[in-house]
Amino acid sequence: MYLFPKQISFKLRFKPYKIWFGKLAGQEIEKPTFNVKGTSKKLKNFIIIFVLLCSPSYASPVFKDFSNNLPHHIYSGEWNHFVGGGVAVMDCNGDSLPDFFAAGGTEPAALFTNTGEFNFIKSNIPDLFDTTGAYPIDINADGHIDLFVLRIGPNVVLKGNANCEFVDATNEFQIPNTSQWSTAFSAWWSDDKLPHMVIGNYVDLGDPDGPFFACDSNQVLEPTGDGYITQKLEPGFCALSMLAARDASGIMRLRISNDRQYYVRNGYEQMWDIAEERFLTEIDGWKKVSIWGMGIASRDITGDGRDEVFLTSMGDQLLQIAQEDGTYTAAPFEIGTYAHRPYFGDDGRPSTGWHAQFGDVNNDGRSDLFISKGNVDQMPSNAIYDPNNLLIQKSDGTFVEVGLLAGIASKERSRGAALADFDLDGRLDILVLNRRAPLQIYRNETEKVGHWLKVKLTQVGGNFDAVGALVKVGEDVQQITIGGGHAGGQSLPLHFGLGSSTAANITVTWPDGAVSTHNANADQTVKLHR
After folding, report:
1. Coil, helix or strand for 425?
2. Residue 32, preceding peptide bond in cis (omega within 30° of 0)
3. Over the Cα atoms of the chain, what is R_g?
4. Does residue 96 carry a pLDDT above 60?
5. Average pLDDT over residues 238-265
6. Contact call for residues 486 and 296 (beta carbons, < 8 A)
7. Which residues contact 380 (CB under 8 A, 6 or more apart)?
8. For residues 365 and 453, what is the distance between their CA atoms, to the nearest angstrom?
């Protein structure tokens, strides 16, 4: 906690309410403005957070560290495991409790079964080494989650059953056996059969002139009957995240976030039109943006029904606002999401962002944002101690950092992560996989949170989990997607914060365009099947 010096001059200009030791008399403070003189950046942040927490409608997030409840596991390895380290979160035994798979790098990957009350046990899976991440996906539409496991070497598909038991089904699904450094994944359905899957590959380890200027090509796995053939997706610029989703124009497209550390120059972020099988260019309104792309998060935070896109990087973390004409514009710095330096400590060098995910951690009806952070290894240009971010969205659409006060400001080298309700109390918890440090998990114990609703869709046919559907609860819209993040994702019911509402209207636009409407009381999981 920051301490006030003995002599300090500052003014807070807002509506004149009385404050007694953190209690507020009167109504909510509306858009306070600050004129802080003679104060440090840290103190200014403290004052801003202090005023926000005095508002009766603002739930101050509080998390408790339950990492000691996890069996030991780390993501390890040398330079070719500087990236990766993803987690895949799903319910693999039908008890509604989220379980998860964690990549291990040069250590064996691990499956953690949730036994309740924030207790987890390691479950048996095939021995897998050199894993970088994994994504849950029901490939064969049997109602059981499978795992597409990314590796340095041939990737592996683990087929699941009802008891969190997984077997290697790579040959069964006829997945082409290529040996590359895979770091990203996404999938979509174009019909009622098998999914289309795409793999993002990083540096070509077979290039004798690498690793710089040696980015590998990506792969599209096209279904053919009972199996797959592979097609190159070029050019590749060292992909670290991919997401197939409706873009700002409402068209299903594949966004690829690339790492300029190794493409160095002449590369950029990419958008591939799935139906037309081509990359967008400036003629389409696609602006060339070059960043150290690590992860993708997507969520409509402006209320116009179009998803904004958040891209992690080294230095500025980039939020792109979806526009009416189908293009994107960089968010103004004042929105508070750039998170370009550590928010506490003495290291003022740029941050390194990895996994990002939107989620409403206090259930006030506004999406918040978690970002995992951590130095690549010992990169001197960037902060060594780089705490994870928890950015809470305010009523005016800006974000404020609360990671330190919330208790999640780890300074390990974090990589993959997940916001998920691990104890089914309606509050999103936080899981983090670290490089060369133990897993961490934080239980959300925030008081005075709003109501909530979870929605789970299923349907008959090949696309059992209705990937590509839109779910609207009140005015909040979410897509069901596979991909994004950093080397990992989740297959869980969509979580919506409802604020003070005790019931909600649900509108589902199914993958084939059919629309259904439903009503539900708050504080439950609604399962919709067609």
Report:
1. coil
2. no
3. 22
4. yes
5. 97
6. no
7. none
8. 11
Rounded to two decimals, the pTM is 0.90
Q: pLDDT band at residue 35, thresholds of 50, 70 and 90? A: very low
Of the chain, the percentage scoring pLDDT greater than 70 comes to 89
Closest C-alpha to 353, from 452, 240, 242: 240
The structure tokens 């526009």 sit at 323
- DSSP codes, 156-223: EEEEE-TTS-EEE-TTTTT-----EEEEEEEEE-SSSSSPEEEEEE-B-TT-TT-STT-BPPEEEEEE
Task: Please determine, for residue 207, whether its predicted confidence score (pLDDT) is greater than 90.
Answer: yes
Hey, is 281 helix, strand or coil? coil
Cβ-based neighbours of 234, under 8 Å, separated by 6 or more: 217, 218
Dihedral sign for Cα 141, 147, 150, 154, please: negative
* Cβ–Cβ under 8 Å, residues 391 and 414: no
- Tell me the HSE value of 61 on the side-chain side, using a 13 A CA sphere: 33
State in Å, rounded, how far the first CA of the chain is from the last one. 52
Least confident range of 1-5, 276-280, 389-393: 1-5
Sorted by sequence, the CB contacts under 8 Å of residue 284 that are 6+ apart come out as none
Report the alpha-carbon distance of residue 1 to residue 10 in Å, rounded: 19
- The answer for 499, left when phi > 0, alpha when psi is -120 to 50, beta otherwise, is left
Q: Measure the CA–CA gap between 367 and 391, rounded to whole angstroms.
A: 9
What's the one-letter identity of residue 160?
Answer: G
Q: Which amino acid is at 527?
A: K
**Exposed, middle or buried by CB within 10 Å (0-12, 13-18, 19+), for 168?**
middle
Distance CA 181, CA 204 (A): 7
Q: What b/e sequence results for 318-356 when a residue is b if at least 16 CB atoms lie within 10 Å of its CB, and e otherwise? A: bbbbbeeeebbeebeeebbbbbbbbbbbebebbbbbbbb
Q: Quick one: pLDDT at residue 177? A: 84
Q: What is the pLDDT of residue 166?
A: 98
Quote the pLDDT of residue 51. Answer: 44
Q: Which positions ≥6 away from 502 have C-beta within 8 Å? A: 451, 521, 522
Q: What is the SS3 assignment for 79? A: helix
The helix or strand, by DSSP H or E, that contains position 120, with its residue range, turns out to be strand 119-123
Residue pair 75/105 in contact (Cβ under 8 Å)? The answer is yes
SS3 282: helix
